[in-house]
Every structure is written in structure tokens, then in C-alpha cells.
């Protein structure tokens, strides 16, 4: 089973603020049956605890620990925001990877994403990508 599919990728998103960006990442997860809608609230709770900004233009919004009960199956959403969105403290995010983790699957998913995103060149390719296939190719290790 694939955790990232073409249907979960949004290219060229325009969001006004961090809240809109997180809501979009969560909505993709809801729309494709990975999580219950309440999970989005848990993503905001998690963000309030500590920012999910990871550096290198990337944020990985996800729910709180107790939100795992709202996850139906493990999945990812990928949101490309070419113009960037302010995540506070001057941190600009151009890639959001929403995570719905079931059991401990999300830890493996996170570590694979981290490896891809460590390379600035990969991040730049994701920011510039014009097709969902390009994103899948870059992140295919996650699948």
C-alpha cells in the first residue's frame, strides 16, 4: 500500500497563512480517507505545542499523540506552496508534508522524508516541480 499517491499531491497552492496551509494539508488527508475530520484540529493543537517547521522550507504538520486514534490508515499529503507561507519567526515554508501515522508507521515515513529533504537540491526540485510524477519520483523511497 502506498502512503503517497498522485491524488494526495497539491501543486502550486496559494495559501494566505500558516493556518490555511495546515488546513489544506489536513483536508487532503480527510478527503482521501486517511483520517477523521477532527484530526485537522489535532494538527493545530500539535502546531501550538511546537512548530512543525523543519528548516529548508519544509514543514511536516501532523496530529498530537492522542490523534492517532483518528487515523484510519497511514498516509501523506504533499502541498507545494511555491510563493511560500510564513510559519512564524521568519521561517518560510514552501513544502508541507501532512502525515497521518498509524501505530509506528509514521516514524519510518518521517525518517525517509527527512533523508530526501536533507538534500537542498531535492527540496529545490520539489519546489520547482510542475508535475505530480516529479514529486513521486523524488519521494518514491517513502512509498
From TrEMBL:
GO BP terms: phosphoenolpyruvate-dependent sugar phosphotransferase system
GO CC annotation terms, alphabetical: plasma membrane
Keyword flag Metal-binding: no
InterPro entries: PTrfase/Anion_transptr, PTS_EIIA_type-2_dom, Sugar_PTS
Pfam family, one: PTS_EIIA_2
Coiled coil: none
Molecular-function GO term, any one: protein-phosphocysteine-sugar phosphotransferase activity
Alphabetical UniProt keywords: Kinase, Phosphoprotein, Phosphotransferase system, Sugar transport, Transferase, Transport
Residues annotated as domain PTS EIIA type-2: 2-142
Function recorded in the entry: The phosphoenolpyruvate-dependent sugar phosphotransferase system (sugar PTS), a major carbohydrate active transport system, catalyzes the phosphorylation of incoming sugar substrates concomitantly with their translocation across the cell membrane. The enzyme II CmtAB PTS system is involved in D-mannitol transport.
UniProt-recorded name of the protein: Mannitol-specific phosphotransferase enzyme IIA component
Species this protein is from: Anoxybacteroides amylolyticum
Amino acid at each position: 500500500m502506498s502512503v503517497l499517491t498522485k491524488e494526495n499531491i497539491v501543486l502550486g497552492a496559494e495559501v494566505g497563512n500558516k493556518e490555511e496551509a495546515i488546513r489544506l494539508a489536513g483536508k487532503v488527508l480527510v478527503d482521501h480517507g486517511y483520517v477523521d475530520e477532527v484530526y485537522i484540529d489535532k494538527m493545530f493543537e500539535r502546531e501550538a505545542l511546537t512548530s512543525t517547521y523543519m528548516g529548508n522550507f519544509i514543514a511536516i504538520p501532523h496530529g498530537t499523540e492522542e490523534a492517532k486514534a483518528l487515523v484510519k490508515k497511514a498516509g501523506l499529503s504533499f502541498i507545494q506552496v511555491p510563493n511560500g507561507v510564513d510559519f512564524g519567526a521568519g521561517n518560510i515554508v514552501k513544502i508541507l508534508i501532512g502525515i497521518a501515522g498509524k501505530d509506528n508507521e509514521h516514524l519510518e515515513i518521517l525518517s525517509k522524508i527527512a533523508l530526501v529533504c536533507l538534500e537542498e537540491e531535492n527540496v529545490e526540485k520539489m519546489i520547482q516541480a510542475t508535475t505530480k510524477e516529479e514529486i513521486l519520483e523524488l519521494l518514491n523511497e517513502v512509498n
